[in-house]
From TrEMBL:
<dbReference type="InterPro" id="IPR051920">
    <property type="entry name" value="MPT_Adenylyltrnsfr/MoaC-Rel"/>
</dbReference>
<dbReference type="Pfam" id="PF00994">
    <property type="entry name" value="MoCF_biosynth"/>
</dbReference>
<dbReference type="InterPro" id="IPR036425">
    <property type="entry name" value="MoaB/Mog-like_dom_sf"/>
</dbReference>
<protein>
    <submittedName>
        <fullName>MogA/MoaB family molybdenum cofactor biosynthesis protein</fullName>
    </submittedName>
</protein>
<dbReference type="InterPro" id="IPR001453">
    <property type="entry name" value="MoaB/Mog_dom"/>
</dbReference>
<comment type="pathway">
    <text>Cofactor biosynthesis; molybdopterin biosynthesis.</text>
</comment>
<dbReference type="GO" id="GO:0006777">
    <property type="term" value="P:Mo-molybdopterin cofactor biosynthetic process"/>
</dbReference>
<keyword id="KW-0501">Molybdenum cofactor biosynthesis</keyword>
<feature type="domain" description="MoaB/Mog">
    <location>
        <begin position="4"/>
        <end position="146"/>
    </location>
</feature>
Amino acid sequence: MTVTVITASDRASRGEYEDLSGAVIESILLEAYPECRINRVIVPDEAVAIRKALDENLGDDYILTTGGTGISPRDVTPDVSREFCDSELPGIAEILRFESYKETPQAMLSRGYAGLKNQTIVVNFPGSVKAVRLCTRVLIPIMDHSGKMFRGEGH
């Protein structure tokens, strides 16, 4: 399985702080899928930079983003992801919000998106370490299954 983790953060992209959320996603994925090849990218909260990172990693099984899913003016990750994808996978975003709501009511303000471009699944996670820890664990049970479906290995 191949996964790219894109962290959308102005401050992390400028080196003002360490990208902890991307590292947590990588760590949890490697616990579940030790053979997984993971590529991490850090970009500013800018549509052009996020789109470029999505384009450059199309072909991986998954592109997971962290950051930029809220309602501030610079939170553009879901908008860029929606424009990038060919079709939506609403069940993923819905369950991530549902499970996150159990932790915090602020989950209702998340605009995270999940969609499909060719055979790459794109999923937006919020930016906090706590949120990505939860969201990654929620997503893990379907990650291998989706790959089998793409390869025609059945359900």
